[in-house]
Amino acid sequence: MRPRSLDEVAGQKHLLRPGSPLVNLASDTGGTSGSVSVILWGPPGTGKTTLAQAIAHSSGRKFVELSAVTAGVKDVRQVMDDAFRNRDLYGLSTVLFLDEIHRFTKAQQDALLPGVENGWVILVAATTENPSFSVISPLLSRSLLLTLEQLTDDDLGVLIDRAVTDARGLAGAVALDDEARAAIIRMSSGDARRALTALEAAAGTVLARDADTDEDDDDHEVPVITGEVLEQSVDRALLRYDRNGDEHYDVISGFIKSVRGSDVDAALHYLARMFEAGEDPRFIARRVIILAAEDIGMADPQGLQIAVAAAEAMQLIGMPEGRIPMAEAVVYLATAPKSNAAYMGINAAIADVKAGNFGRVPKHLRDAHYAGAKRLGHGKGYKYPHDDDLGVVRQQYLPDELSGTTYYDPTDHGHEREVSARLAKLRDITRGKQS
After folding, report:
1. Are both 185 and 302 inside the same structural domain?
2. Which range marks the domain in which residue 264 is found?
3. Residues 321 and 271 placed together within one structural domain of the fold
4. Residue 48 lies inside a defined structural domain of this protein
5. Element (H or E) spanning 110, and its range?
6. What is the pTM for the complete model shown?
């Protein structure tokens, strides 16, 4: 079912607009100039090899494919020598598709440079790793970096429907019901290969079953792949999870409440369910960051830093490896002391502001840097805390209408116990409750 031309490619429309480098590369009829080398960076199953082969089939160039897993410097140099001869003797340029270029050592990547720099080959390299860290700078600077996006549900739907009916696929030998179709899309997590593999496995199951039951029936209906068939065929549970429905909200709610309740095992269970159901990792990461600020808060300020670091790590390395730093963050947050005091404090302050419970900034705190400010009394009487030995002075900071109001009420949990004791002393000094 691999597309034979760029027109058949599902997804990656941002790279396939008229006049884009990939379209120009595919439409060029050969020759020795005019196209730039490209590095395709994206998650597995998003079409890197597909794009490269579609370009090869669409253009008049010679196409050579190497895998960084098996190829060495000798293989690369042989390709370069052949490309040089083809260019000089026949005026034919060569497209070299190099899969998993991040697996090449620096020496192996260096061997590509002469051919790329002199135009002997047009390099189309594919990688699932960030090229900024996995591709040498000279090669990166001579290539155009194109980022492939994870396939959308609509893209996967097009691929699945095509595979069911196309002569190269199942040729209409089976039908696919809506539940099974949606389940394949869910469990594929944007990976076309995973979707087609699941479809093929389910089709094999239902065709074998149909052959056993209808050997003597020449007029039987086309067998249907159902959710039950899919669950039996694919070695994973068919999760009842709709990313836009009740289960989406129920599972994330159970996840958040498990972390808040310090049940680390339940938290990991719901995290796994979201991962396996194909939930958007960015959604999970955002919820974990919010959770760290809202429910752990000042009881362990490190929690927010860990949540943010896990989100950045997930974005950098992608899935499935991104599950590891995210699981680490979830374990940390679930076992950390909890406090929602900062969350409650900002909510209370916002409620006052919305209700109109605010006043003018006290004159001694107002900006005194513009002409005429002193005449208005701005800044007069302001006490500079750094001039005091303690670094804290008695001074009114809230507007008169809210003088003495308390929004932040720390707990005695974790780090906030220390904050609570220090805050009591600070308020005693700034509000003058003790000498």
Report:
1. no
2. 252-335
3. yes
4. yes
5. helix 106-110
6. 0.54
